[in-house]
Amino acid sequence: MMTEPNMTKDATAVAIDRLHSAGWTDGALRGILMRSWELAQAVVMDTVIISVDATALAQREDDDGRLLWTKSGPVGEVVEAALALPEPGQPGAPAQPMARSYHEQERDI
Fold it and tell me: Which segments show compositional bias classed as Low complexity (predicted)?
């Protein structure tokens, strides 16, 4: 019988394998996975950060650092949502910033 920590570790490993299989690459730090698209006038980046407590944060940003989409919660739910997210430019893909970027806010100072 598996203990709870092993079950969590296995679920996290499965989630990372699913992201790798879908073309996501490892970031500079362990538990960070990314994918990006170079569009005609912009770059869009998706990031998933997996915590040691089996929670995760996923987000999509444009090249100005504006957040287009975000999801946090249990690693399995977050990975499913990130994998289901349409590619930029496809129907249903988030395209409008949720808030102003750090760079835009800095200009107001």
Answer: 86-97
Residues 6 or more apart whose CB falls under 8 angstroms from that of 11 comprise 54, 75, 76
pTM for the whole thing?
Answer: 0.77
Query: End-to-end distance of the chain based on CA atoms, in angstroms?
Result: 58
Strands 25-26 and 55-61: unpaired
Q: Residue 4: what pLDDT? A: 46
* Backbone angle region of 97, left / alpha / beta, with phi > 0 → left and psi within -120 to 50 → alpha: beta
Q: How far is CA 30 from CA 26, 33, 46, 72, in A?
A: 7, 8, 16, 18
DSSP E strand boundaries for the chain: 25-26, 32-38, 43-50, 55-61, 67-74
Least confident interval from 4-8, 43-47, 76-80: 4-8
What DSSP state is assigned to residue 86?
A: P
Helices H, strands E: what count in the chain? 3, 5
- Cβ count near 43 (within 10 Å): 13
